[in-house]
Predict the structure.
Amino acid sequence: MAEKNTIRLDKYLADMGVGTRKEVGRMIRNQAVSVNDVVVRDSAYKVDINSDKIIVAGNELGYQSFYYYMLNKPAGCITSTEKGPTPTVMDVLRTAGLECPRFDELSPVGRLDIDTEGLLLITNDGALNHDLLSPAKHVKKTYYVETSEKIKDSDIKKFNDGMDLGDFVAKPADLTIIDDTHALVTISEGKFHQIKRMFNKCENEVVYLKRISMACLKLDESLETGDFRELTDEEIKALKEENNK
Ligand code: URA
């Protein structure tokens, strides 16, 4: 049997995005809400979100506690949930039209530099967020890189061997050269400015950086920069399965 998980009726409806606490309170008083086919007129009535059938104005609601989005991060915003003078990825999501009943609980999984674009997973699933960032999990992240100078064949070995960057030694990484100044790099850690610093160590400079995958999750190339979409059930399942290995 599913575990009991009770919550006030008005909070449940507000979390579901049905309306503000005030609006849903009015709906409840107006007898628009039923629980297990019985009209409930008390906003404080406790519902079991795992088993109760809740109907609002004829529509049955399904409770969702976790939300997962992929954002194609544009350059010019910081990976933060704190409001400040510089736009954040949360501002980008709002501008792109994200309406999540648990918006304030969402946070990005890891950080991308202000000028880095590409895949950013945003979720309120704290356990998954924590696991994907845990150094012990060695989660792979792949980046598309454009450089100012020619990428040398000899750089491949330098990336593979693990690089001494002064304050830490980067773990072995994969470098696949596409052409003179374009490559794919896969790392299994996420230190500050890591890819830029690895190329600097090879006397080169990153002029464009875009993350294209994280674990088994791939950036949906149909997303314009600045756009987001919810993860599919299959993507969420695959991420969790990979994570639990
Ligand atoms: N490495 C970098 O240098 N920057 C990023 O944003 C991500 C990885």
User: Anything to note?
Assistant: The helical segments are 9-15, 21-29, 89-95, 126-133, 153-161, 194-201, 233-243.
